[in-house]
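Example record

Each entry pairs one chain with its bound ligand, flavin mononucleotide.
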Amino acid sequence: MNPKTLLIYDTKRGSTEMIASWIAEELGSVDLKRASEEVDVGSYDLIIVGTPVYNLRPLETVERFIERNLDALKKKKVVLFTVGLSKRLARFCLNKIESKYGIKLVTEAVFLGKLGFINRMDEKEVRNFARKIKETFYSKEEPSGTT
Ligand SMILES: Cc1cc2nc3c(=O)[nH]c(=O)nc-3n(C[C@H](O)[C@H](O)[C@H](O)COP(=O)(O)O)c2cc1C
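Structure tokens for the complex follow.
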């Protein structure tokens, strides 16, 4: 059976939202929600959290989401991705979240985003990441109509 999957994100300028929507599209069945929405984390098996990086930090709404649900998150499979204009800085932010909250991640990624006319987004890389999650945590589809 496929895991019940939640993808939580927030965005200021749209790039993290776009990345989240590519991941959701690849996974197929996933509940896509903004970090400020109330959600019952306990009812999910796999939780993907995505945040853009502003001044080396995640968005506050995403941090609040993690803090509100920390106990539940520690019992779940958690994937984290950060989005920035520098992979090095996005990695720094991701590592900081991981160590600050002590969440054990099943996998993680840093993606490049966009800012005004600078667009470093790599849709293929994002979709490949999502496909790997799917291969690892989702069951293979059974051929139908064989009876
Ligand atoms: C004020 C400001 C601070 C930023 N700080 C960082 C940063 O510390 N590290 C980084 O990699 N990108 C930084 N960025 C770039 C954003 O992370 C990037 O534009 C990202 O794609 C924005 O995501 P969003 O469109 O989902 O809001 C900054 C952008 C702005 C405007």
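The pocket of flavin mononucleotide is lined by residues 11-16, 52-56, 83-86, 89-90, 113-115 (CB under 6 Å).
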